[in-house]
Each structure stands twice: as C-alpha cells, then as structure tokens.
Amino acid sequence: MSTENKQVVDIENRRDRWRFTCPNGHRSWEPTNHHFWCQRCARHREVDGVFYDLRDRKTGELLDRDKVRLKAGVENYHGGIGQVVDDE
Ligand SMILES: [Zn+2]
C-alpha cells in the first residue's frame, strides 16, 4: 500500500543483521535489485540462494522485498555512505 510503511533495514547494522535473516535463518544474505540472495542457501545444490521474503526474527514476519527499504552503510554497496538504496 503506502511506501511509508516500508521496513528500513540497515544491512551494515549488526543488530539489524541479527534481526533480519533469509527464510532459513541465515544472516549471510545480500540484497539484489528485485530480491535477496543468501550465500549459505546458495551452497545447497538444489537452491540458487535467491529468496524474496526477508525474515524478521523479532516479529516472525516475512517481509516482501517491496516492503523493505535497505540502508547501506559502506562504500562497497552501490556506492555512497549511509545511502538509502531503493529500486524505484
Ligand atoms: Zn539462507
């Protein structure tokens, strides 16, 4: 519905890293343009590591990529420090 309701996830914030995981509970995920990718999941032969819903361990909810607003804190991710990355 409203874009104001997006959950901000700071992928460089340790607390957010612990809170938000891939659906299998791994913290080794990375955002991509339209979904997420998990390194640990990708190690399994039958899956490629791509997933679409980030798991919020605090609430148990699954957050669709569209509902997540990613905040990156380091320069190696799409450039820019503290930049909010979104794919609009
Ligand atoms: Zn995973």
Question: Topology, please?
Answer:
Elements: E1 7-10, H1 14-19, E2 20-21, E3 29-31, E4 36-38, H2 39-42, E5 50-51, E6 53-56, E7 62-64, E8 68-71, E9 84-85
Parallel strand pairs: 1-8
Antiparallel strand pairs: 2-6, 3-4, 4-5, 6-7, 8-9
The site of zinc ion (ZN) has 6 residues, from α2.
What would your notes on this structure say?
The protein is mainly beta. The longest helix is centred in the first third of the chain and has 6 residues, at 14-19. The protein has one domain. The strands form 3 sheets. It has a 3-stranded mixed β-sheet with strand order 1-8-9. A 3-stranded antiparallel β-sheet has the order 2-6-7. Helix content is 11%, strand content 31%. The two termini are 15 Å apart. Residues 74-83 have low confidence and may be disordered. The chain has helices at 14-19, 39-42, and strands spanning 7-10, 20-21, 29-31, 36-38, 50-51, 53-56, 62-64, 68-71, 84-85. The chain is built from 2 helices and 9 strands. The structure holds zinc ion. The site of zinc ion has 6 residues, from helix 2.
Overall morphology: globular
Number of helices: 2
| Poorly predicted regions | 74-83
DSSP E strands, number: 9
Bound molecules: zinc ion
CA-based gyration radius? 13 Å
- The H/E string reads EHEEEHEEEEE
Total domains: 1
Q: What is the average per-residue confidence, as pLDDT, rounded to a whole number?
A: 81
How widely separated are the two ends?
15 Å
Structural class: mainly beta
Strand proportion? 25-35%
Describe the sheet with the most strands. 3 strands, mixed
Helix content: 10-25%
